[in-house]
Amino acid sequence: MTLKLEKVSHQYKDHEALKSIDCELSPGIYGLLGPNGAGKSTLLRIMVDVIAPTSGQVLYNNRAITTLGAAYRDKLGYLPQDFHGYSQFTAEEFLKYVANLKGLDAKTARVRVKHVLALVGLTSVSRKKLKGYSGGMRRRVGIAQALLNNPKVLILDEPTAGLDPSERIRLRGILSQLAQDTIIILSTHIVSDIEYVADEVLLLKEGQLIGKASPRELLAKLDRQVWAVQVPHNELQTYTTAYPVSNLQLQKEHADIRIISHAKPHISAQQAEPRMEDLYVYYFGSGDTSNS
Ligand SMILES: Nc1ncnc2c1ncn2[C@@H]1O[C@H](COP(=O)(O)OP(=O)(O)OP(=O)(O)O)[C@@H](O)[C@H]1O
């Protein structure tokens, strides 16, 4: 099973959001990482055939998804970035409704709704209206609806937004179980979301795919280039201007900073093990990093 992007470009009026994206995906978990405005949601919306690319195409098992139509949608699960659900529905009613839209027969729908509610840990509150749900609970309903039809292509736009740490860990577990025979793509600008779960990271910057590799391969590129340095307060600005900074902690007497540099930046600098946050700063700068 493959999902292939061939020279996918997208233009919004005067803004080129995606620039000739080429890549091929097979079952596994892909983390689509990029800062705000990089084009992540646009790319995912093209992959689920909600919008058509201005040029290029997406192929599922070597056939254009636009011609596959319903046959592709049957294989697809999608969590949009702005998923809300219907607040007057209970989780169970909402999922039954979506199962209906997805064309599941009544018996399968009952079984699948029960299964996905258990999977996302909402069984005990499944008869409560969504309007009483927290943001994280609603997000879990969104994840559940994407899984209803046992999709072979699962596309999750910022699935962890609003989830607390234990909910994130639960989601990682769910995705890992599915990854053997499902192509899973999740977008995020939170690096810790994909550090442990992604088989490959797709780096998207200003509409261009600038990297596609496993977290380990990407981190290896930063080998011997991450440094922990203690600098006096009055020298801090010199360092933050000269180097990408992936962490900064102000202490009373000095500042502890983590910087990326080919050469040893200071006589007291200690080499540090590269982490995904360093990678993010290396590729995207320190303006929009987030590990919350
Ligand atoms: N409907 C639209 N009309 C015009 N420009 C748009 C539209 N949707 C997105 N854009 C622009 O295209 C670019 C890519 O947007 P997109 O939402 O795909 O990025 P993103 O990486 O998902 O960002 P975020 O992390 O903030 O959600 C941005 O500059 C955005 O302002």
UniProtKB/TrEMBL annotation:
Q: Which domain of life is it from?
A: Bacteria
Any GO molecular function: ATP binding
Species name? Sporosarcina jeotgali
Q: List keywords of the entry alphabetically.
A: ATP-binding, Nucleotide-binding, Transport
User: Which family is annotated?
Assistant: Belongs to the ABC transporter superfamily.
Please give the name of this protein: ABC transporter ATP-binding protein
Sorted alphabetically, which Pfam families does this protein's record hold? ABC_tran
Task: Extract the SMART domains matched here.
Answer: AAA
What are the ABC transporter domain coordinates in residue numbering? 3-231
